[in-house]
Amino acid sequence: MKKFLLLFLFPLSAFAQTASTYIQNGNARANAKDYNAAVQEFTKAIQLSENNSDAYFYRANAYGNLKNYEAAIADYAKTINLRPNFSTAYYYKANSESSIGDYHNAIDDFNKAISLDPQNAKMYQYRGSAKSNLQDYTGAIADFSFALKLSPGNAELYEYRGLAKNNKGDFTGAIDDYNTAIKLNPQKGDLFRYRADAKASNNDYNGAIADYSTALTFNPQNAEAYLYRANAKGNLGDYKSAVDDYKKAAAINPSLKNLFFYLANAENKIGDSKGALDYFNKAISQYPNRADVYLYRGLVKSNLKDYNGAMEDLNHSIALNPKNADAYQNRSLVKLELNDGEGAKSDADSAIILNPKSLKAYISRSKAKMDLKDTAGVIADLTQAININNKSDEAYLVRGDAYRNLGNRQAAIRDYTTAIQVNPNYTYAYLNRGIEKDKTNDQAGAVKDFEKLLSLSPQRQDVYTRLGRVTDFYKYTTNGVSLFTAAINLNPANSNFYLFRGEAKAAAGDIQGAMADYDAGIAKNPKNISILLKRGLNRADFQDNTGALADFSAAIKIDSTSDSSAVVYQNRGHIQARLKNYKAALADLNKAVSIYSNDETFLFRGDVKLALKDYAGAVDDFHNATYINSRNAKAYAHSSIAKNKLGDDQGSTDDFDNALKFGDGAYVYTDLAELKLSINDAAGALGDCVTAITLNSKYAGAYLQMGLTKIALNQKPEACTDFNKAVELGLKKAAVIANRYCR
């Protein structure tokens, strides 16, 4: 903080006539600002009177105005020798010493001047400035404070004390002083600029931006105000506006220190990697030997997937500064992209040697070890990273990935959970945790994670797909319809989004809306087997057997050999059996068993064999079903009928007991009613429906099945009453069936 004095001339004392004349001439020349001529006149006076203190003093002033401070200091020293109590000579000598950066001697002379004139506020002010230049901000503040006691209301003193407080780190105190200075002198634009600096240092970026803006109204060409306002905007995350301000600063003064460096980083923050690259190129033109500029340009090139260019810059950065751990750490990541796992590990090792507390270096080395299949090493490095900083969301995420690769899904989920606790908006952690929860059959948890992720990143089409592929996702969310409506708006051509929304609508009871979505999905992609299967199953559920058969047949035409086709053959066989096309049904179910069988496949085939009176074959299939799923109540119940046909009363009783053990009684009897109806035992079916309703009068499914049984018995009015009862109890599909039979 430099402060310069204006050097004034003082009245002439009575000297020898000739010296006095030269001094008068010298003052006249000085007042006309012809300081060289003034020096000549004062020199002549000194030649005539070598002990004339005034002549030395005035010549010193003239030298000072010529900025020949060394000569001025010599003449002030001569003046002081001749007049040891002349406080002004000490004061001016001190100021000249400050002008050449000799602050220690300046302070000594200010001390002497103050001892002779202790009530002169200016002397304290200038001594405070000298102390500030020596970074003695505490001493400077004390001097400015004392000067304010002598000269209250002096805006300049508040300004200088504010600068000293700011430099000391007392930003709040600095702001208080700037506030007072601005009240006293509201037309000084620099005061707003200084206050803005203090507010920015105090993390009040909005306040700083307002003050920089005011400063710019006083001086629209103040490039530094634009630069620092841009920095404040960047700290608020408003990088786009920061870029605009950096560009304004560059238009005024492109030589400002770090300007292009800051501008390049801001361009990178708004996702304009190419723009960032252009400005880093300019920064390198300004600072061709700055290692950090090459480092950051290398990172931008890496973002642009120019890994070879990134390597070149990072190599150059390391050559300029081989002690920068960050450069090695980032080069490690680039080498990993170039499939140089060993090189990546070596660079990460170097980064850790240079900075053993570098969290990122351990993470980088863990990624290199993961590439080298050293999973145990990965976990060790990430555990060390977490020991360094247990708030590192990335460390927990990557360690979770390592545990996942080891097959330890629970440990992976724990780490993903901790990452989310550290950073509740960490989308990667929600994604990975959701995937692992789905694999551990925690469908509810998976759906919750994917929903959260979509609330943070609603444009992620891949996450909508993952959500839709969670088994029965619609059971775990009430937002399925709105979520997949958003997905369809993002990509109306994605047929699966119609499938998923249809499933959500069906779960919410909007059957017509669901079918409309399945139709729309198939229109988008007629070869989408998943939609054909889902629509077929819905049609079967509503007794539209012909429509179901058409959908299953279309799916098989598209794919008749893959494992996934087994479920289509299975369901087509089930519908063929409903239509009493037992030969076709058996062929489809045999095909399903040959491809991939489950307990339901054997159950359906057993039912067909039962209808064909192949009771022994039926018993075998029901046995296979219960072998695969020992709690399959339907298979036990159906087996009890087949064994009864074979005369195995004990076996029939045992199987029926198991059916009631593993299934609700009303449900078991309703299922048996459906089976008996399919094998032309309508009377037996009706009796089972009555039993089911006796067991649970609120079971809508029993009323629906009783209605279907009465349709088979030509008891239409009674059937419609049962359908309506099922609807009344909340079974929405019963309304669709009633509409078919009771119009």
Descriptive report:
TPR repeats lie at residues 19-52, 53-86, 87-120, 121-154, 155-188, 223-256, 257-290, 291-324, 393-426, 427-460, 566-599. Residues 1-16 form the signal peptide. This is Tetratricopeptide (TPR) repeat protein. Keywords: Repeat, Signal, TPR repeat. The chain is an all-alpha fold. 77% of the residues lie in helices and 0% in strands. The protein contains 43 helices and no strands. The radius of gyration is 45 Å and the shape is elongated.
Q: What does this entry show, briefly?
A:
With 743 residues, this protein is an all-alpha fold. Helix content is 77%, strand content 0%. The model is unreliable at 1-16 (pLDDT under 50).
List the helices and strands and how they pair.
Layout: H1 17-31, H2 35-48, H3 53-65, H4 69-82, H5 87-99, H6 103-116, H7 121-133, H8 137-150, H9 155-168, H10 171-184, H11 189-201, H12 205-218, H13 223-235, H14 239-252, H15 259-269, H16 273-286, H17 291-303, H18 307-320, H19 325-337, H20 341-354, H21 359-371, H22 375-388, H23 393-405, H24 409-422, H25 427-439, H26 443-456, H27 461-469, H28 480-490, H29 495-507, H30 511-524, H31 529-541, H32 545-558, H33 565-578, H34 582-595, H35 599-611, H36 615-628, H37 633-645, H38 649-662, H39 665-678, H40 682-695, H41 700-712, H42 716-728, H43 733-741
Radius of gyration: 45 Å
Shape: elongated
Beginning-to-end CA distance, first to last residue: 96 Å
Number of strands: 0
Class by alpha and beta content: mainly alpha
Mean pLDDT: 93
Task: Please mark out the parts with pLDDT under 50 across 5 or more consecutive residues, or reply none.
Answer: 1-16
Percentage of residues assigned to helices: over 70%
